[in-house]
Design brief:
The protein is of the alpha+beta class and 287 residues long. The protein has 2 domains: 171 residues, NADH Oxidase (3-Layer(aba) Sandwich); 90 residues, no CATH class. 52% of the residues lie in helices and 12% in strands. A 4-stranded antiparallel beta sheet has the order 1-2-4-3, sandwiched between helices. Helix 2 runs antiparallel to helix 5 and helix 9 packs antiparallel against helix 10. The longest helix is centred in the middle third of the chain and has 24 residues. The mean pLDDT is 98. Bound molecules: flavin mononucleotide (FMN). Flavin mononucleotide binds next to strand 3.
Length: 287
């Protein structure tokens, strides 16, 4: 491995999400290189059912920032909104008088999502290699209607993800990642014992994080977690969740992520809205 390769790998291994963009414009040449790396990404059947809407106007960035309720978005130089785009693909099929039913097949849509992620991740890597700060924004999938209107999206398109790009002075949050042998399985899937999960996830990755609570705050969280667990997992599990919170004097990371930050009652309440949007956009694979 030569020096340049080693340096490139070091950049990629040390990547992190940036949320503190500075007021320094991204040069056209740099952005162009990043986008060209994206265009070269792998694509199932090389069909490329992907479009990117490049947003640089202040007003529109402000609107997206508001829609996604994340203030730093407006400070990025450029937003790339990734679209699963069957509109152009179908048009090609119509021009060429081909039978077309990809919007009826969920399997094809999975490929389209994978295509978007391949392109998005190529772009992320290129940005990191060029010293350009970046962060993904997934909130679009809770704001389909607003994004459709703002970006003038036609039928057969779904906005999936945003990448914010710009120079940044964000030092990162030092996120700990799971260790190699927890994620990479040799030849076949290896399950972990509960003790190993405790050691490798709870201790190692999350350093036994507990948000300590007392008094009214503790009561509020206990009530919330009991209600959520009761609804999604039933009475027996709800009593275990409550007992654990009491024993800890607060909530642990798993409880925070799965019961609070990504409250399953809220998350699943989007199902109908999401399915409706897919149907309205002309996708026909949902029952
Ligand atoms: C699909 C996806 C959606 C994301 N959405 C958001 C988002 O809406 N807002 C945000 O600040 N970060 C978002 N992120 C960034 C993650 O929070 C971040 O990758 C994670 O905390 C790990 O930190 P790191 O990227 O610094 O390693 C998203 C990442 C992915 C892959």
């Amino acid at each position: 491995m030569d020096q340049i390769q080693k340096e490139a790998l070091t950049v990629l291994k040390n990547r992190y999400s940036h949320r503190k963009f500075i007021d320094k414009p991204l040069e056209d040449e740099v952005l162009n290189e990043i986008l060209e790396v994206g265009l070269a990404a792998a694509s199932g059947g090389n069909l490329q059912p992907v479009s990117i809407i490049k947003v640089q106007g202040t007003e529109k960035k402000n609107q997206i920032s508001k829609i996604c309720n994340q203030g730093f978005i407006k400070d990025a130089d450029t937003l790339l909104v990734f679209i699963a785009d069957y509109y152009r693909m179908k048009q090609w099929a119509m021009v060429e008088k081909a039978p077309f039913g990809r919007e009826q097949a969920f399997r094809d849509f999975i490929i389209a999502i994978e295509d978007v992620m391949c392109m998005a991740q190529s772009i992320e890597c290129a940005a990191n290699l060029l010293g350009v700060g970046n962060v993904y924004i997934g909130t679009v999938n809770a704001k389909y209607d607003e994004m459709k209107e703002l970006l003038n999206l036609p039928k057969l398109t779904i906005p999936l993800l945003i990448t914010c790009l710009g120079y940044s002075d964000d030092k990162g949050m030092n996120r700990v990642k799971l260790e190699k042998d927890v994620v990479i399985h040799e030849e076949s899937y290896q399950t972990l014992s509960d003790e190993e999960v405790k050691e490798r996830v709870v201790d190692y990755k999350y350093n036994n994080w507990i948000q300590k609570l007392e008094g009214e705050a503790l009561d509020k969280y206990l009530k919330h977690f009991e209600e959520v667990a009761l609804e999604v997992n039933g009475e027996e599990w709800a009593s275990k969740v409550v007992a654990k919170i009491k024993e800890q004097g607060g909530i642990n990371r798993a409880q925070y992520r799965f019961g609070w930050h990504y409250n399953p009652l809220v998350q699943r309440s989007y199902n109908d809205k999401i399915f409706k949007f897919y149907k309205d956009q002309g996708f026909k694979f949902l029952p």
